[in-house]
Write a structure and sequence with these properties.
159 residues, mainly alpha, Cytochrome Bc1 Complex, Chain D, domain 2, 8 helices, 0% strand
């Protein structure tokens, strides 16, 4: 589904935290269908969903080779920031930081735009809006392209 994240392989803590934010109506400024769904979940159900999703396999890289110029531009932009510190060098995510590797490109771009604009809120931290401040839409699109196609097929890595 367009603009919907791939959930497989997300860290359990991240999933629980996101479901909690949905349940409490604190995930974004505009209500979503997930807010209504999550309102019905108990803490035990949040943890069960988190554990289940963490055990699902993460998505493989897209079948199509990435656009090399966009991929390289995105890689250079990511390497100039702290992305791999919080999200791990392989962008697998950890604790409350999501897996970004091989996430849907359209979703990554939307999420980054929402963080940059303040439309999407998180744990009360300004980390993501600060990290994304100053990036143009074309730069965010290149970052999304790089992450969606990570690891590089050109490097011979495939899952």
């Amino acid at each position: 589904m367009p603009l919907t994240p791939s959930l497989g392989g997300q860290p359990s803590f991240f999933v629980v935290a996101q479901l909690f934010l949905f349940r409490e109506g604190r995930r974004g400024k505009a209500p979503t269908p997930m807010d209504e769904f999550a309102k019905k979940l108990s803490d035990d159900e949040l943890r069960a969903f988190g554990d289940l999703i963490a055990r699902l396999p993460p998505p493989a890289p897209p079948a199509q080779a990435p656009d090399r110029k966009r991929f390289d531009r995105g890689k250079a932009l990511v390497e100039g920031r702290n992305c791999s510190v919080c999200h791990n060098p392989d962008f697998s995510g950890r604790e409350q930081m999501p897996r970004l590797a091989n996430q849907r490109e359209d979703y990554l771009l939307k999420a980054m735009r929402d963080y940059r604009s303040g439309q999407r809120i998180g744990y009360g931290s300004a980390t993501m809006p600060e990290e994304l401040a100053g990036y143009s839409d074309p730069a965010l699109a290149d970052i999304a392209h790089f992450l969606a196609n990570f690891p590089s097929r050109a490097a011979g890595k495939r899952r």
